[in-house]
Design brief:
By secondary structure, the chain is an alpha/beta fold. The chain has 8 helices and 8 strands. It is globular.
Length: 234
């Protein structure tokens, strides 16, 4: 069984789903420390007539010290939800498939979610459904394992019964391959090539939120992902 793991990104880029497609199980690392600096857990990139723009979900951090991702609460004060939704509508007004997804985007920018993990899981599941990614999604907090770095990933593999751990190539410098080898877990790497697709507003920009792909290509998004699907290797 092939397992991969990832932090629960907000509106993740296509490479996230390339890795999911190559896995039997994807573990969302909800029970690790929330990063202190900028993070893909609370923001992602979209595109308008001026180029890239960011959508950021404000969260409560001040005075709370170190938090696990699963503990982080969304800050609902202010008009950021309305502003973000209007930015999406304006940027993608001419996108062929915005209408198919604007109902969900309205839910994303509502006050329906208390924690960032709840929002990000809902978004990830929605994108997986629309991309027809049938990979099983599980939470680290469900596995009752502990550890850091490579040791944590090894314990995840053991708890889930995985025989192969799949990681993005650039993560290789942080992993101790010998630990996997000693414990009978095959370590494979994947190099994600950004899919190229019809896109609004001038020159193509890669690695935007997968919603950019979905708004522009609709039901064809899955085929575009599959055409750019990378091979995994050691």
């Amino acid at each position: 069984m092939i397992l991969s793991a990832n932090q629960p990104y907000f509106c993740a880029f296509p490479g996230f789903f390339h890795k999911a497609l190559a896995s039997d199980v994807l573990i969302m690392l909800d029970d690790v420390q929330f990063p202190r600096g900028t993070t893909w857990i609370t923001r992602n990139r979209f595109k308008n007539d001026r180029g890239v723009f960011w959508i950021t979900v404000p969260v409560r951090k001040k005075g709370l010290g170190l938090q696990r991702i699963s503990q982080v609460r969304i800050c609902h004060e202010g008009r950021w939800r309305h502003k973000h939704l209007e930015s999406i509508k304006a940027a993608y007004a001419n996108a062929p498939y915005l209408g198919d997804h604007i109902g969900f985007m309205t839910e994303v920018f509502s006050n329906a979610f208390e924690k960032i993990i709840d929002l990000n899981l809902a978004v990830t599941r929605y994108l997986m459904k629309n991309l027809q990614v049938e990979t099983k999604l599980r939470l680290l907090s469900e596995l009752d394992v502990t550890g850091k770095g490579t040791e944590l990933l090894l314990e995840i593999c053991r708890a889930a019964g995985a025989t192969v751990f799949l990681a993005q190539r650039q993560a290789g410098r942080f992993l101790d391959a010998k630990i996997f080898q000693r414990n009978g877990i095959e370590l494979r790497y994947i190099t994600c090539v950004p899919p190229v697709y019809p896109q609004l507003w001038g020159d193509f920009l890669a690695n935007l939120s997968t919603f950019d792909l979905l708004f522009n290509c609709g039901p064809g998004a899955r085929d575009i992902l599959l055409r750019h699907r990378p091979a995994a290797g050691r």
